[in-house]
Protein 1
Amino acid sequence: MKKSCSKMKNQLLIIISTICIALFMNACATFKKPTTINEAPIKERALTKEANGIRASAAVVGDQEARQIFGIDLSRKKIQAVWIEIENNSDRPIILLSTAIDPEYIAPLEVAFYYHRAFASDANAALDEHLLNLNFPVRSSMKPGSRASGYIFTNWFKGIKVIDIDLLGNNFSQNFTFFAPNPDKMAESKAVIDRIETMFSDPELQKLESEGALREVLEQLPCCVSDKNGKTSAEPLNVVLIGEIYNWMSALVRRGYRYQELNPRSVFDRVQDIHTIKLSGGYLKGQEIIIRLWQTPIRYQSMPVWVGQTSTRLGGRFADTASAEVTLPMDPHVDEARDAFTQDIAYSQALIKIGYIKGSGLAQSTQTETSSKDYQYTTDGLRVVLVFAKRPASLEEIDFFNWKRLDDYR
Amino acid sequence: MEPWKSKISITTIFYSLSVLVLLLQGCATTTSTPVDPLAYKKRTESSVMGELTITVAVPTNSEAQAIYGVNLALKHIQPVWLEVKNDSNDTYWLLSSGLDPHYFFPSEAAYAFKTEVEKFQKLEFKNPIRPGSTQAGFVLVNLDEGFKAVDIDLLSREAVKSFSFIADDPEFRADYKLVNFETLYKAEDINNIEDEEELRQMLEELPRFTTNADDDEYGDPLNLVLIGEINDILPALVRRNWHATETTWSRAIRRTIKSFLLGARYRYSPISPLYVFGRPQDVGWQKARRTINERNHMRFWLSPIRFRGKKVFIGQISRDIGVKFTLKSPTISTHVIDPDVDEARRYFLEDLGYSQALAKYGFVKGAGVVNKEEPRVNLVGDPFYTDGLRVVLFFESRPYTISEIDYLPWETPSGFYGVSKQE
């Protein structure tokens, strides 16, 4: 008894001295407001678009830049700031919807609270003030003829950041979508976008107008991706996205997808052009769906046609944690991911049409493919075709292709 | 000696609370009586819209275990049973994402229990629902305790049909029953309003702050007004991943202490009761954020006002950004709210803007301006400041895109930081 008592005393001493050290260290690390803030490089590389008298600019703030501007290390808490400027030369007041930029965006005082220190109320208050002042002026509407700029705090992701800007007016909305390079990985990010934009020259394009012709061509696309050696046939190509990249990327971002590098797969002798993942950064785990996409030379009613592969990792949110780019072992029931993706994106207000066609050609289910166990799957063999538009569409407005019914293939 | 003394007392509190938690846990072990796996079918609710008939039931945790053979609740999974009878000429598809944007795939749930996927697949609700046919099965969603708000969106070539239900959990919490909104007020107490200006006036006269049970201390500002039928409002919240939540009491208190002290992972902590019209919130809702200590939460109360026949609810929203000790709550811990409460109000408006159920919004005077320099405190001593307005949200059953949302030019939020930065 005596022994355990002295043991407890010792433990208590250790706890107390740890607290003291922690308090001491705390005091050293309180916030100090940066004396100068240099926003010039951010404004310089900001991307700009204009429509209906509204001009929007956006840029991602690098981790180093963030230290200089905010006086705190945002990346430590996996936060990434985005700079936004809106110039409203339209005749209507508009507001910025921060939830479009990141459905899980972080409010300025929420950010500040992460960096608050014990016994440092003055420094804490200064930090609150500093972040509030730098925040985009979201509280009031932007009047005609006004300009507003500032930062929105989002969840940190490496590489390209797709910034979806939705502006809301009375009976009106305006969308701008940007592929903003990360200044810490500038060259890489730029290369991705340049590559997509210059991939096909006009004579290479296969232009289609009718639904029938589209279906025929889409059914002839390869069944599956292959691994990076181009040999093993792997995951099935089970989605087709039709529309400008900005329109479907905006739909994805609104539904919580983020640009995320994934392990390479190959179609048309090249690795995926775009990869994205739905991954909740929050306390609660959510659906984890990955998508790899390749641009095709097909243009349907002058909209680009992309083909992709969607799946989840075996176990989904219950899988052991591996880095986000690792996508194997795959859940063999690949149709679940395809169907979940389709249903989810129906709520994005950017989906206008759905259809199903023969895809990997496995008309009967429970047929397994390939030599590698990691790639085995079962599927009904269908490929979902989704068309996106810039104008927002409600659930009611979603149309269907006049193709045969889904079960005709079953 | 003083600081030393206070540290000992904290340690003492910690140990005694831990013991209390363990004790309380001891009381809560469940007895294993056999459960009828079909018992949930006695609690079905049905709704007819045109040629579609929907029937819904939510099995209790033990019924779910009897159905699936595993304790789904352990992984915070809950099955919702539904049956769709389609007497129309169109094929319908159920959008499971509407029921829960993060619903579980059968294979994912089976993996969580390292069990065969076939059983899960067999029980699953299967699309499509052909003309003249009936489909029935389960969708696996995130577990809500107490009651479950269910939104069912059915899509066809011609139309979209939305149904909503609130299913009670008979196993859970005898001390809390879901409020019946239809019988809450006597007919003679209802205040029917047709005119928008009159509505505005009535809304401005509603209570400004929540109170404590004794109605002698003021809490958070009442900064929300929701107008619509429960069937229009629920789908909006569910689609945007809001979850109805229990009020802090009994088991909930035990769990909160446990999660605070032991860092146990609970999906949601309950929210404490605040009072308006002399009663605690009719429903509390929350939306999880980055850590267990961060969440948006919202409470609402049905008011006696009816606008063009629709119900008018008054509500309060704030955002938790961390935790602190308090002696003012039976759970000894409470969340620290973002003092800038208007930020959470704005978030709510934006979030529901994407729900396709928001038709119109505007602002009216509410709590009144509380300056940042002289903040008020809520019932647990958290400071807050506000421009004093309430956002008024009008919900409709037909889907609205963000381009179709109307703005009522009543009050204009001035913003504490916004104005000066605009050029």
Protein 2
Amino acid sequence: MEEKIVIKTLKDTPFLSVSLQSTLWNKTGTWRYLRPTYITRRAPCSKACPIEQDISFYLTSLADGKPGEAWRKILESNPFPSTCGRVCHHPCERDCNRKDYDEPLAINSLERFLGDWGLKEGSLDGRGIPKKKERVAVVGSGPAGLSCAYFLALGGYGVTVFEAMQEPGGMLRYGIPKYRLPRKILNQEISRIQSLGVEIRTGKRMGENFGPEELKPYAAVFLATGAWAEQKPKLPGDDLPRVWHGLSFLRQVNSGKKILLGKRVVVVGGGNTAIDSARVARRLGSKVTVLYRRAKADMPAIPDEVEEAGKEGVEFIFQAAPARIVGKRKAQEIHCLRTKPGKPDASGRRSPVLIQGSGFSLKTDSVVLALGERADLSFLPEGMKRGDGLISIDPWGRTTLPGFFAGGDAATGQGYVSQAIASGKRGAQAIDRYLRGKTENPEEDDREVVTPDKINLDYFPLKQRVKLSSLGMKGRTKSFAEVHQGLSPSQARGEAERCFSCGNCIQCNVCLMVCPDVAISFLLKEGEYLIDYDHCKGCGICAVECPRSAMKLEEEKWNE
Amino acid sequence: MERVISGNEAVAYGAMLSRVQVIPAYPISPQTTIVEALSDFCASGKLKADFVKVESEHSAISCCVGAASAGARAFTATSAQGLALMHEVLHWAAGARLPIVMANVNRAMSAPWTMWCDQGDSLAQRDTGWLQFYCEDNQEVLDSIIMAYRISEKVLLPAMVCLDGFILSHTYEQVEIPEAADVDPYLPSYNPIFKLDVEDPRSFNAAFLPDMYMEQRVKIQQAMEEAKEVAKQVDEEFGRAFGRRYGILEEYQAEDADVLLVTSGTITGTARVVVDDYREKGEKVGLLKMKMFRPFPTGDVRRVLQQVKKVAVVDRNISFGATGIFAQEIRSALHHHGEGTSVFGFIAGLGGRDVTPQALRDIVEYTKGKEAPEGDIVWRGVKP
């Protein structure tokens, strides 16, 4: 202050104690020992998602009434939102921070809504992508192979996909029944990948009608041949007519073949193939019993699918295993034994032990054995395989052979669609690095995950999760029509508004409003907040009050 | 528009017509229906104001201080213990020269638990630097709220408009509600010289050392003195605009009176009837209605009372250990200025006890019959 004001008379005395000039010269920020900054933390849904989608980012756009923006954000990380929105096991919802507050967000249904919105309204234009000279071959057009092809195409690579079957899609087409994934949706999502210039050659089976020499022109190869070989432990009577194996049963139904099952069907197994087979058999008009050697809680199948099967009239017998199938000219009866949990196996699950003398039998007209799948890797040299029958890869999909990468069921042994997509995406990243001559791994997302205690619940009114409407039971047993209906635009927006946006600033202005020093402003042009550190005293109210943990406080190191 | 409304509704209409911008308020009987009416006005969009639900009267008046500091026209209302809880902030509002207007629905102080009327609550705040006005009927209540903003914003001191609990607050009377189009030119928007502004930040109310503080107190007293003249002008202009005038005090049949009643609040209405009765009988009994209590209109009180031999002050309040508060102030005003005037200090109607025409006649008769009061306090209506 340059001028000292001296007041000598009553008349000169101001009526109010007020500074006659601005107080901005007073840099109260020097009092600060804690510094608030904005930070993007990771939401638990994103951490749980195999594809690591930034779910809250796209839901923020949807809640703002911008489905197009949301859809484009999804396509940055997932080429199959409409498919995943129907068949994903959605671990995102299991870990949603909202689950202990009221109910988890219906993320899976929102993904489907946005995916379907894009199929109707959106368009993906790959013309602007700068092209690279290398071409990459992908073997297998399931979710892993096509995802790898998609991300490579987005990166400017030319891609050729070799597919053994007559149509692309792999298990999405030949494994998953239509009532879960209508083929029109699948075809549209595959077409979108092709629209980026991805070439798909069908009827090309590795080791049968094409071989290594055809892969020579390609700078890199991604192997995603899936797990199509069925586990067939020896069971007396499994060679009788009307005894099916799950995958081939599903493949035939999904290929449109007519199958005669009879009045009663027993399905053996507890995985997704078993539940899909059971629900397909219901739709073909049979009475269905599922036989599983462990307890209900041990089933590897998606719990929602098990529940829907139950609703559709599928009966379950748990802790029982088949001993033999008997019948004259065809399966007529299945003899079973009760089981009890035994010692934990390598996976930590307790292996069931047969209880001798507990035999019972079920009358039946057909049996479907769905006892697991494995990869058929007979076309590969031994050095590329692991002892457990999978392709040997590192966490980024690199095989033991330079230039060869692998993913999906053949390499990971994981069975969910989203896991296959994730492995395709990681493979594409690794291939890009390889082709660009980079040796280090792509960066892993190691951002801190927002735990529920970091959410400021005062800002979130309780609101129930959106209710899905589903097909009535009559419609389910007679047709393969899709069971679950999609959300309406207003339902989707309302549900998206429930999202806490954990760790993701949505510009709610709470920080700006609570700052007692008016030291936070919003820059309209940049679309972000600016903290005036000349006057921020570091009280920390902004960071503590932030509803979604998108700020952090750090100690100032003034002396360093 | 003429309507039959309660005193509390009259307060709410007065605030709405004053186009108040921020209303932080906390409910307390008998003030509650003011808060209800204002929140309805805000909810329906009739009044474009921020209605702030607060957790106490201390917060209500603090929020008013914040709003007024930022240049908004702020309003609140309370009663009794609620007003007492505001006490420290009342000083701040005056010292910070913020023209907040508050309605106080007069209610006796507890303990014991009570809800009924006397003036103990507002008169206990007489030294906080707030202007104080006491109203006789619902029309005066409505008009006084509007006039209070004019006076406050001119002299930059807060104002309290007081109305008797239940007797006015919950009693319905015919009231002329002025048109907004007529009030707007009478009460233009508030534009303070200094206000909180993030674009031009300044330090407000920072410490004054002993070499500065005292002058600032003198300035408040000067503003209080100015308020007397300002209030008269504002009243005159109100009369021209709306055809009603009140003055800062009112003489009723006071000329040539042998006995002059001095009243405030609703006792005034009763006193008018009693005075008329005496005048009909040819007895020279008159009335002085005290509307303005702070600043105390010392000069006007002297001018009127110096002419009168016997003055009967009716206080609905008591300063424990002293006397009725109006009597105290009047005696003080007449010291050295009214040697021939005898002041009788009656206390009646505490805690809502009725002050009937007969009670006032008894007061007049007592005053007529004695040369001087038997003590500084003459209690009326107390059980034998």
Protein 3
Amino acid sequence: MAILHTVNKSPFERNSLDACLRLAAKGSSVLMIEDGVYGAMKGTEKSAAVDSAKGDISFYVLGPDLKARGISEDKLIDGIKVVDYSGFVSLTVDNDKVQAWL
Amino acid sequence: MATKKFMYVNRKAPYGTIYAWESLEVILIGAAFEQDVALAFIDDGVYQIAKGQDTTDLGIKNFSPTYSALGDYDINKIYVEKESLDARGLTVDDLMPLKWEDEDEDWAEKDSIKVVSADEMKALLDESDVLLNF
């Protein structure tokens, strides 16, 4: 059953993203929100882990949280899709359940 | 009402934040609804069921004995991720011996805790109907 995983903590402060990547099954979706959006940036020590999981997992990041933090889309890891709030709702509806990595 | 598979996912250490206590409260309330309940302990969540907790000097409630009562509420699927134990230098012997009594086998005492790999945990999350995160 499809799971939408949400990550709302900076990967440099907490291990939420690491745990998510370790335990998300193939075919699931990951949405980065709040401070979790820092995990979507390229050139960080966490970028490689996200990049190598891209084949099995679909990655999304919440646009308003990027904008608030001054992160432009050209700074994102290739292949991560930016969604707005209605996109967030769609992801929630399209998956069977949500796993929030608090 | 059809029975659903509930999975309570616990990832925080017990006393630094309220998550662990809140989770236990919800688990006990949820137990009254006769659903198929399982618990997952991942990352710092494994510290919640560590042996030998004593909060006397903190002046706050030590709620760890409550985990031992879960078997009486038919909650006997307690999954602990091996990778999380390993990372913290812990083994199952460092955890409280949580048991339940099997009515179908003349009340034989059985272990509730099952240590599982990350891949097994991944599958357990996947096959649950409802995930509750703490």
Protein 4
Amino acid sequence: MNGRRWWPSVALTILVIASAFPFYWAVVASFTPEARLFQAPSLFLTEPVLDHYRALFTERNFWLPIRNSLVVAGTTTALCVALGALCAYALARLQFPGKVPLLGFILAAGMFPQISVVSPLYLLLRELRLINTYPGLVLPYLTFAMPLTVWLLVGFFRQLPGELEEAAMVDGAGRLRAFWEVIVPLALPGIATTAILTFVYSWNEFLFALSFTLGPERQTVPVAIALFRGQYQIPWGQILAAAVVATLPVTLLVLAFQRRIVQGLTAGAVKG
Amino acid sequence: MASVRMEGVQKVYPNGHVAAHGLDLEIRDGEFMVLVGPSGCGKSTALRMIAGLETPTSGKVFIGDQEVTQLPPQARDIAMVFQTYALYPHMTVRENLAFGLRMRGTSRDIIDRRVEQAARALALEQVLGRKPAQLSGGQRQRVALGRAIVREPKVFLFDEPLSNLDAKLRVDTRAELARLHRRLGATVVYVTHDQEEAMTLGWRVAVMRDGYLQQVAPPMELYRKPANQFVAGFVGSPAMNFLPGDIAPKGEIQRPGTTLGVRPHDIALVPQGSGDLDAWVDVVEPRGSELLVYLRLGATGDGTPLRVVAPPDPPIQEERHIGVKFDREKLHWFDNESGRRIG
Amino acid sequence: MPGAETRTGIERQEARIAWWLVSPALLTILLVALFPLLWTVWESLHLHDLRMPWLGQPFIGLDNYVEAFREPRFWGALGHTAFFAVTSVGLELLLGLWFALALNRAFRGRGLVRAAVLIPWAIPTVVSALLWRFMFEGQYGIANTALVKLGVLGEPLVWLIDPVLAWVPIILADVWKTTPFVALLLLAGLQNIDASLYEAARIDGASAWRQFRYITLPLLKPAILVALIFRTLDAFRVFDLIYALSGGGPGTSTEPIALYTFNALLQNLQFGYGSALSVIVFLITFGLALVYIRFLGAELTGARR
């Protein structure tokens, strides 16, 4: 038996190094002068320079996309969790005709390709003069975020023992009171997990943000980075610095709540 | 306090399962009524319909003079103790006890007073500030009880409240429940699958099976005059023996087409040949105060099985022949067709 | 809340509350997902070119679809998508299973591993595409340098201008980003397998391979299927990754169907034609999704109690 014990460690070492290396490499490169980026790359940081970061925030005003992303992802998350929690509670706990098809519909809605609604959403937003505005991003984001939120929350609500609400109702609370006084406090960890996942997906979204913004004033972080490609030369140093900056908040959030997130990812089995 | 009445209550689940076939049951004001039966017999469904957690497909439920069939639980003025206790894990014991009163808008000082009272009565004063997770099993059970008591409801509903306790605690709590009922004089509907619990607690016991009421009677009447073969077999421990009606003991009329029921306590062991029938001793289980003897009727070891409770002395040898003698006063005859008791 | 005096029954009241609770989210989904989807279908049956508004929007039946089916670039895009899906999902499942087995065995360092594997997942796809592009960029990127130093390559390759080699960083980036997710899904499945089964098998004298073959694999099948279908669906929608990594190039040799559709819509502004492409993408993923819902069906209907 003992002879076989070595391979899991090898596998996990490979996994950790492979997972971390590209990001590590980006960090190293983002502190390397542009001229040395493609000459004899060194695995370790020798003389770190802050040029790229300075350029990012002075020449490019990278604060703007960060602010845009925060506003859009934050609003989307708040809306989805508030409306999604009510919906998910009904789906998880109440009996009503049409429930099962409804669950199926929401699951299906969460899986259909974003590209298939780009054209009407574009025409709709253009009609409403919402192209290149915050609502013009939040609204499309609800297409994928709302089903995701509902689906995750249904899973979390179902984990709570049903007798608790029955006890609350026998104790004199109505349905909604029981939901607010008993279910919400108990499901808070699950609700937080859902909020984090929704935020991460919204923060990382690209297709809608690319399609429904016109210029830098409303571009989100992923779009801004993707469109960094200058006219003649790709500004790799700045791209990598931006990548590090864009990833840092999400990474910290994810690392802080890693256990819960893994739970949410695997329980809800959502898209990667 | 109030009575509870079910009139022709039927419950059919969407999947077609019928959990209650037209139940008619009256629970008198202040009575301790136990619903008992094997799992899946519909006793919990009946309780949940009284609570308002399920709605009857047809029929009516009354609490006192008021029809409550279509009222939600919060409008029924009942309290319920759940099998899992269903304590709110995010609230302290005090908050758990106060929750029902708070939901009904009771004033703060009345809440405080009643919570203190209940805590004193149930020896929970020391743990009022704790959360349910920090309590022992017995304490949790008492909090669940306390949560029902503070409300001073019209009717108490219990759904297998003792089944999560260990054996000793269960017996203690059983006695405490009986005392509590005597003190409060409240109407109680109590569901259990344990016939011993039913017999010791109930003023009357309603035996259920497959969604039908089998018999509603005081415990001793159930024991002495079971309405049918199912009740006879369900009530009493060890369970009643059933023999084909044509293996009649000496001096009895043979009754083909019937089943003879004899309780293990109503059979005496005598030397071979001197009793009503002869039997083969299969296994002897010593139980301290008595012996439980497993017999096989006839000379060989493969006849109809028979359980007999015998005094611990004299000892009984296994794998021997022996005679059995039935107590003529305590024989039960059941019709094979209907299962009903005919004598 | 309706008063207690209603005679409509608790169940009907519960249903009414339920629909009130469901409706805000449901209306949102109908408004931003279902309604646009139907609109897409409608668009796809019309000629609608935003660059030529004077043409109006005449109904042209299935002409847009016919045009797509006659267009080699469409078939190319479809082929690229299928190739990408099969290759990347295949690799991810194999590697993911291997890592999941390792994670299931490991007693120490699970926290570290979990943290490490979440990094690729948390990084925006666009950013990870750029990271991989950077590593494969030009002649002196780290990939070339490392491969030459290790002696795998005699001389550096220029990956991104070769129609075949350009797939290497694309597939690697996808595998890098999603293998951890697959591994976590499969690990959850593995942890649901009762450990005593392995003990029983060991007592019965089953070798490690046989334990894997006759216990792990059959019991893990549901988890593998879920991962497979999720990943396939996702791979069919691939857009961000390729947009940022190769832009579909060189030429259109790595262009997936979603990127082709995007270009038709927002670069060429052919809304009718682009919508027809959108509908085709939708139908393909919908077919795959049906399989998935069917598979999860049991879980769906086991709603309560």
